[in-house]
């Protein structure tokens, strides 16, 4: 069955209804509607008056004035001079005008009262445990302001603080991005009956991890103790190889480096290979001869250059890393060492797990973890951080809930369409141009049908010029395939255009795809379910390669480890964290790539050496794959973490982009790139929400008349067709993909034009925007935001 996890927003989306200003919204909408009707009727009456003014005699000036008033939407005077045929139509027009005037007169008072009530509701929503607890982690200063407001409801914070609280409350209700308790994560269990999906009505458990940066910092200071420096495990870089008279290996920056072979270097390389997994002092002793200090200098130089590695033997994906480090330090020395403080750090993290209570930051279990770590850091020779900073920068909280139960009969039709989406996305794979160019590069380098060492190909690809699909900046261009010299890339552009047009016409593309458009394999799709008249439907938010990616981050914490599916190839994971906690995950494939700087956890017989891998060219289909001669199997690299591939080191990036499956669609790199358009579906799956692009200069700006601004905003939304509830993000003309990973301005903001606090937030967004705004419909718009990460194509 499809493995899946669910992410549930910490507040119901319906909770935001409390911020609405229904009376003011109705009055503003009525003013807009009446204005449109008055304008329409004034045009008709103006034409009728024009026909009679010429023969009106003495009444001509009065009729001209009436016509001008109608055109300017002013109340006409001296209507007694109107011809009989126009008397009733003008009186009806005046009646509508008076109704509009009454609505406009009532609007300021209604808006002021409802806005005050809405801001009070922000306080109540921010007091919800999921918001209150998470806010202490995300923004300690804002959390302190909230706690003061909760203690004294009459002490309303300043406007900027209210705006910040509104942003968090809206985020917790409208989005499912996991952070602390803002979103809870659940396993998905499939059942044969019941509701389409059922979210458990029990508080989640909050678990606490230390950021991988703390572990890296600890590991960097441990070698200051000579006995621990001597106990580090040394090995030759798994990406080092001998080529002719040189030893070739990637440096710390990812660039390939060379050392001229000498008898001494050959002996050292052979020693490191022979002593794989040996301690530093053992290798140094065999190298030293009569000068131990010389051996240490040689090994340290090779360590800095990247030819050699020396690390504590603790896997990067260890679930309890500080306990494992403590065990290693205790075994490495008989003296009283750092094992005690390391163990206390781990115990403090373990004890911090608790059921989400009322969210009070003072009593939260995370506070105990902060105190435990703070006490242990000086014993390790590390500086103490302020508690609030330590919680925000060092600790990572996750809210884990009971399983979300989904009724399989309700889901089967949508899952079948999701499989169609998986195959449809193959032609839109952003990395397909890179893979085609890579195959051609290997053909030109070594010949058709050749098998070239992976690391030789990596060194050659690193020299690709800008504009080449092999260059990292290729996808920064708005239309990278336009004018491509490669006929396959030109055809790919045409295939993509036709497949999108087919969906826009309500049919799936019927094109027979060329052999070089390969099946993407298992794909994790991020979907939001909702009910429609024809049953369950899904909205696709993003999709990337599967093999546990998107789910293993959470099964690691939930303690659920599904067995990998048998395949005709070897799916092998990158074992490292690459300096980011987002890359922590449970093993999901059963195989690992032996990667520089990463300590794996797979047994040796399940690790694949990079130096044994070859890039195999297929002259029939014009593609290339990764081949492991010793096993006689194709290898598919897997980046199991949640960090963007663009932030991986160059070699890891080539592995997953060139031979794996990366993001197939993402809000920052959509499969259907466009500036505006209606909703697009493939069966029961929405692959593109309705979208608008708005010039910021055309958006009404707030002045001194709030009621008038609300009317202007509703009139603008009605003209442009933008719905009352939507998501808005800043559209920038060109932003590097690396920057997009951390650019908060690109994050969509939920906007409700029927809630005055949200209207003000929209105004701030418009003022800050350097360019156009991208607006998408809020779909689904139900009671609670629920997103499932579902792996399809798993068999």
From TrEMBL:
Q: Which residues form the signal peptide?
A: 1-20
Spell out the coiled coil positions from the record.
none
Superkingdom of the source species:
Bacteria
Keyword Metal-binding in the entry? The reply is: no
Q: What's the name of the protein?
A: Lantibiotic dehydratase
Transmembrane intervals = none
Q: Which UniProt keywords apply?
A: Signal
All residue ranges annotated as the Lantibiotic dehydratase N-terminal domain in the record: 128-359, 601-734
């Amino acid at each position: 069955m499809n493995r899946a996890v669910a992410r549930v927003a910490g507040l119901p989306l319906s909770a935001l209804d409390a911020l609405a200003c229904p009376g003011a919204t109705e009055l503003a909408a009525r003013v807009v509607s009446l204005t449109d009707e008055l304008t329409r009727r004034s045009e008709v009456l103006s034409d009728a008056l024009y026909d009679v003014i010429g023969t009106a005699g003495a009444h001509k000036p009065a009729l001209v004035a009436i016509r001008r008033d109608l055109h300017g939407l002013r109340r006409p005077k001296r209507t007694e001079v109107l011809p009989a045929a126009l008397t009733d139509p003008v009186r009806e027009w005046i009646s509508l005008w008076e109704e509009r005037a009454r609505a406009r007169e009532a609007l300021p008072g209604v808006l002021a009262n409802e806005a005050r009530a809405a801001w009070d509701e922000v306080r109540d929503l921010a007091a919800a445990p999921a918001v209150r607890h998470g806010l202490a982690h995300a923004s300690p200063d804002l959390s302190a302001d909230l706690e003061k407001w909760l203690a004294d409801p009459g002490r309303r914070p300043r406007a900027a603080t209210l705006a910040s609280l509104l942003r968090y409350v809206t985020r917790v209700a409208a989005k499912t991005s996991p952070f602390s308790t803002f979103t809870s994560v659940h396993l998905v269990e499939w059942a044969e009956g019941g509701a389409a999906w059922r979210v458990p009505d029990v508080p989640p458990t909050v678990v606490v991890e230390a950021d991988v940066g703390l572990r890296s910092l600890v590991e960097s200071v441990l070698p200051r103790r000579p006995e621990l420096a001597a106990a580090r495990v040394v090995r030759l870089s798994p990406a080092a190889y001998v080529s002719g008279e040189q030893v070739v290996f990637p440096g710390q920056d990812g660039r390939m480096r060379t050392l001229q072979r000498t008898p001494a270097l050959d002996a050292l390389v052979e020693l490191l290979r022979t002593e794989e997994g040996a301690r530093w002092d053992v290798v140094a002793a065999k190298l030293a001869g009569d000068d131990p200090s010389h051996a240490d200098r040689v090994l340290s130089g090779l360590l800095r250059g990247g030819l050699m590695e020396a690390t504590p033997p603790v896997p990067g994906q260890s679930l309890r890393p500080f306990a494992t480090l403590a065990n290693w330090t205790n075994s490495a020395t008989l003296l009283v060492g750092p094992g005690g403080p390391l163990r206390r750090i781990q115990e403090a993290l373990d004890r911090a797990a608790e059921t989400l209570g009322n969210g009070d930051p003072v009593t939260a279990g995370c506070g105990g973890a902060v105190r435990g770590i703070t006490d242990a850091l000086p014993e390790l020779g590390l500086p103490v951080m302020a508690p609030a900073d330590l919680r925000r920068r060092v600790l990572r909280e996750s809210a884990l809930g009971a399983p979300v139960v989904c009724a399989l009969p309700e889901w089967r039709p949508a899952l079948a369409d999701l499989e169609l989406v998986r195959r449809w996305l193959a032609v839109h794979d952003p990395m397909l141009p890179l893979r085609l160019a890579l195959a051609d590069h290997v053909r030109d380098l070594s010949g058709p049908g050749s098998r070239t060492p992976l690391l030789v190909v990596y060194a050659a690809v690193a020299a690709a010029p800008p504009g080449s699909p092999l260059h990292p900046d290729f996808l920064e261009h708005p239309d990278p395939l336009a004018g491509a010299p490669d006929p396959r890339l030109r055809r790919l552009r045409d295939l993509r255009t036709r497949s999108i047009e087919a969906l826009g016409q309500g049919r799936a593309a019927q094109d027979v795809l060329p052999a070089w458009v390969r099946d993407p394999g298992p794909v994790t799709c991020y979907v939001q379910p909702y009910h429609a008249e024809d049953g369950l439907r899904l909205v696709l938010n993003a999709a990337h390669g599967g093999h546990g990616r998107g789910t293993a981050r959470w099964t690691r914490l939930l303690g659920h480890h599904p067995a990998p599916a048998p395949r005709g190839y070897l799916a092998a994971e990158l074992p490292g964290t690459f300096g980011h906690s987002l890359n922590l995950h449970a093993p999901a494939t059963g195989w690992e790539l032996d990667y520089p700087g990463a300590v794996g956890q797979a047994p040796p017989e399940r690790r694949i050496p990079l130096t044994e891998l070859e890039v195999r060219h297929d002259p029939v289909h014009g593609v290339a794959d990764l081949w492991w001669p010793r096993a006689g199997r194709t290898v598919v690299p897997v980046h199991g973490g949640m960090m963007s591939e663009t932030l991986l080191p160059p070699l890891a990036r080539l592995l997953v982009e060139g031979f794996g499956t990366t993001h197939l669609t993402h809000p920052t790199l959509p499969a259907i790139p466009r500036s505006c358009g209606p909703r697009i579906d493939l069966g029961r799956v929405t692959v593109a929400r309705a979208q608008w692009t708005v010039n910021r200069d055309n958006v009404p700006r707030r002045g001194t008349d709030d009621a008038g601004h609300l009317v202007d905003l509703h009139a603008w939304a009605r003209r442009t067709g933008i719905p009352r509830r939507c998501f808005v993000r800043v559209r920038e003309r060109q932003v590097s993909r690396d920057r997009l990973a951390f650019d908060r301005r690109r994050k969509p903001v939920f906007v409700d034009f029927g809630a005055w606090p949200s209207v003000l937030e929209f105004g701030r967004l418009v003022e800050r925007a350097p360019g156009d705004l991208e607006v998408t419909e809020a779909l689904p718009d139900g009671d609670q935001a629920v997103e499932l990460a579902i792996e399809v194509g798993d068999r």
